Structures are given as structure tokens and as C-alpha cells.
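Subject: sequence -> C-alpha cells, single chain

Hey, anyone have a minute? Need the predicted structure for the following. Not urgent.
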Amino acid sequence: MAEPATIDNASGATGGLNSFFASMGQYGRFRDLLLPIFVLAVVVVMVLPMPTWLIDIALAMSITISILILMTVMFIEKPLELSAFPTILLLSTALRLALNIASTRLILTYGHTGTDAAGHVIEAFGGFVMGGNFVIGIIVFTILIIINFMVITKGSGRIAEVAARFSLDAMPGKQMAIDADLSSGLIDENEARLRRKELEQESGFYGAMDGAAKFVRGDAVASILIAVINIVGGISIGVVQNDLALKEAAHNYTNLTVGDGLVSQIPALIVSIAAGLMVAKAGTTGAMDQAVSRQLSQYPKALGLASGTLLVMAILPGIPFIPFALMAAMTGGAAYYTPRIRARENAERVAQEVTAAQKPAPAEAPISSTLAMDMLRLELGYGLLNLATQGESGNRLTDQIKGLRRQLAQEFGFVLPSVRIQDDLQLAPNAYRLRVKEIVAGTGDLRPNMLLCMDPKGQAISLPGERTKEPTFGLPAMWIDKRYREEAHFKAYTVVDPQTVITTHLTEIVKDHMSELLSYTEVQKLLDEMDKSAQKLVADTIPGLISLMGVQRILQNLLGERVSIRDLPTILEGIAEASAQTKNLTMITEHVRMRLARQICDQQTGPSGLLPMVPLSPEWEQAFLESLVGGGEEKQLAMPPSQLQQFIARLTQVFEEQAKAGEAPVLLTSPTIRPYVRSIIERLRPSLVVMSQSEIHPKARIKTVGQI
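Reply:
Had a minute. Here:
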């Protein structure tokens, strides 16, 4: 299948001559060998003799390549589209010099046999230009060399030299401009990288063009020397070795030399013009024919004055009328029609602008839109933006967040609000920040092309890398290279990629703030999506027994302690039962927890099938009961600070000992004091589960591992 016809400036060496050969061999198996074979062929031509028919083909190919180069230069939009031009210039020069050597060998060897000794192409050029007079041929050949050497090559070389110098001097300023645009957010990292790459190519191109101009100048000097050698050496060989008359020898060798010189100098002149156009094009945009015609026809008055001048010259005595009158008519016609064409183009442009202006302007966003708040937002430094969209399927950050939404819905019955992901140039390149309702809830620093390695046992990691802290739990960790993944797995280390680090951190942040994220609208949506069989229960409970706001508060209380609200029918039944006895939302929540006893016990049961617990001692139970003040539903905890500190110290000691033993028990209290004990513990150890005795399901298998 053919490859797409696109050009990558970074691979400009495939342009020009190599593109010509590649287009002939793109379906072949040895496409990459074409250019090396061409270079080897040029070297072989310099050493081995060639037959005249092969010389004719090679000279025709040289002329074809030079014309192809000139036409390509005419139509490119900017010089970097042909960044391999210096290479093409060297190869074409080498080809011409190799053909000069091959033709010189034939001229000096067989020149005495006639003017076709070096092939029919050289004979035709020599006979056509000389017209039977070798003096004319020498003069024309000399003029071509002077034009090429003194005018075109010298001028284009000077332009290339100045362009290279200015390009190098301006590079620091251009790089600073790119960095400024990147910092201000006008461009992204990919655009900045492309601009820097183009800037490097531009400076390298003009530097190479400065040196490549020397190829053509050297080619012109070599042509002069080769011509002198051919004429002097040929006449000497013809007279001395081949017994030719001096006039015949001069005719033969001069004809052959001038023909050979013209065949080599005409392609050289064409390539020199192409080089001059290439370096002179730096200040123009678009194809060269369009730029020249657009700029020359920009001033109709100039065309009109030129037409009048030519017309006056046409009617002067002794001046040929037809040529100058024809040019006057052409320039006059251009002066007449150009303003009208421009006026029509301007009218069309104005009409388009008016049409665009008549379109209703987009309504200005109301100021209230600025009050909109993202429930969850993930802000990434520009170095981490690729994590959101790149990676294997299922491993992209966006895919992992989708999986997190499904996991939370299944585990807690909680629908995670949409997470807005955006870049923040004020962050460090590899940093990220998590916000809950516009408030920072967590931060971290990643290495996008590395893996985070942790030891479950808490020991030092014996792999090379960068030591760090795991951002979610603050555990010791290390960033390692991806090639150490298998070795890390062999050593039983936990290895995660940067996307998983962010997702894990987001998961814990969401679990800590589920009660805040459960909005009034979400609660209504959850109730509306319940089965039809449960809608009668919803209608009997809300708003007759409790308001929707009250249901929201109870669900928030449950999520605040990471109790799943997926079993909404059971929760509503518990609310309906308790609402008949009390309107205190805390008491209703406790009754609902009792109805969810089997679910809560199952959630805290360990792999062994046992529910580990640490009960509160009777002394502390009594102490909490005696610290409750107020009557009825207005009870409050009023424990002395010293006694409270003693309780916290004992609690911390017991649960740290259990953590070292590999246990994660729950704290067991009586139903009356459970809410008050939880209110103390949630500030100290928010992940600690506090259960009441009425929440222990009869079929739960329990295990007491300590006591407070």
C-alpha cells in the first residue's frame, strides 16, 4: 500500500533527489539503498571509463535533476520544506564533476575521431551553440561561467552568509519568546516543542546553505580548469600522437570541450539560480510565483507608468515598435484590471465580514456562572497532562476514574460526581492537586515515566531510584525505572504507575468527603431511581414522616462513617420506624445502623471470617454515661479534659498494638454512648470504626482482641 504523501521537515534528507529515487522505488524492498547506490555510482564514474551511450543518459539525467530542483524551489511555501537542499546541492555538484571527468577521458582518448567522440549530447550542444565557429562557443561558454561565478553564486552566497549570522544571533530571543508564550498559556508543550525544533532546523539550514554556496563556486572554477585542460591537452594529443593538422585538432577538441562545458554549466547555472531563490525566499510567504505576482501587481500606478514609458519608447524613431508596444499593452492591461480585481476581492471580503458581524453575538455569560463550583477537580502540572489521555486502554487516568465511579457505586451506593481535569501552569510540571468544592484536599508529586515502588513490610527498598513519600498515606516509597518492574515483583514489592497513584489518592479523598459530596439533588435522584416496588415506601415516608432534607442528613451520617447506603429500602424502613418515636436525626441514624447490622458486620469481617473487636470496659462505659448532660434528646457529652486525654492515650496505645499485630479491630460500645464516642474518635482516628452492641448481627462470628 502506498505511503501517505506527507513531508516531515525533520526528515528533510528524504526530499529533493532522494524523494525522486524514493518515488521510483517506494514499492521495492531496497528503498533505503537507492541513495547510497547513487553515491557509489558517482564514485565509480570518476574511476572507470564509460561508453558514450551511458554518458548521454547520465548527462540527460543531470539536466533533468537540475530542472526538477529549480521547479521544486519555485513552488515550496517556505525554505524548511526543502531542508535537504544543501545535501542535494552537494550530490548534484558531485554528479556533474564525475561526468566532467568521464567526458574528459573520452575527449582526450577519442577526440581525434570526430566531434561525436564524447557522445551525441555533447556534440549537439557544441554544434548548436558554436554554429560552426569555435570562437563563438568559447565566448558563450565563458559568459555562462562569469554569470554563474560572479553574479548568481556570489550574491546567493552573501545572502546565505548574512541569513545564517542573523539566524544564530536571533536564536536566544526566539527561544525566550517561545518560553514566554508557553508560560502564559498561549501555546501548549507540544506546540512549544515543535517551534523549538523548527528554530533549530532554521539555524542549521542557513548555516548549511552558507557552506553549500562554495560547492557551486568551486564547480565553476573546476569547469574553467577542465576546459583549459581539454583544449590544450586535446590539441597536443591530436597533433603529436594522432598526427592531426592543427586546424582539425583545434576544431575537434574545441567543439568537444565547449559542448562538454555547456552540458555541465547549464545545469550548474540552473541549480545556482535555485540556490539563490531558496535563500532569497526567507522573507516571503507562500509559493514564489504567488508572492512575486502579488507584490509586483500591488501598485497599479507603477504598472501604468511603466506602460506609458514603453509606449513612448515604441514610437521613437529607430526603435522597433512591435516589441515595446506589446509590452506596453501587457503592462497597461495589468494596470487597468488589477484595481478592479482587487476591488472585487475586497468587496467579497467585506461582504463576508458584514455577514459574520450580522450573526448574533454569543450571549455574554451571566455573572452568576462565575459562582458555579466544581464538586471535584483534579489539577495537573503540564508535565502530567499526557496521563489523562495516553497509555494502554483501561490504564488511562480517565478510564481509571470511570472505573472508580462504578466501584464506589457498587461498594457504597454513592454516585461520584464528575471529576473535572484541567491543567494549571502555576503548579510544578510533575505536581497535581485535588480539590473538593474548590478547597484543596490533597496534593502530590509524580514522575510520569517511572513506577512507584513500596514495601508492604515497611522495609527499605533495595532498588535504584528516587526516594519519596506515597502521597495518599504518607508511606515510604521509591520511584524506580520501568525496567525494574519484574525485579520489584520478584521481591514482593507493590508497584503502581502514576495514574494509579492519582486514582488511589482520589479514592481516599472521595471516601473522606462522601458526606459532603452527597447533595440534595443526588438524594432525590437516588430515590427516583429506586425500583417501582419501593416507590410506595418512598411516598409513605417522604414527606409525611421525614423531609427529604432529613433523609439527606441521615445518609450523610452513614457515609461519614463509610457505611454503604446502597440498601436504600432497608434504610427507609429504619427511618420510617424511628420517625414514629423521635425526630432527632442522630437517634434515627442509630436505629438505621441497627437495621443495617448484617451489612456493617460483613463489611468489617476479616479474611478469617471473624469480626475482631476491642470492647470498652465497664469503667469507661460508666464514665461516658455519667458525662452525658441534658435530658431527652438534648443530651451532650461533658467529660473533663484530663479524663478525655486519658481515654485518648489508652485508645491510641491499644490500637497501635493491634496494628503491629496485623489486626484492624472495631471499637465496641453500648448503643447509648456510641455517637458521642465516635464524635471524639473521628478527629483523632477517622478510619476507626465504632460499633454498638446492637449492631452486632446474631450470626456474626466475633473475636475479642483487647479491651479499653
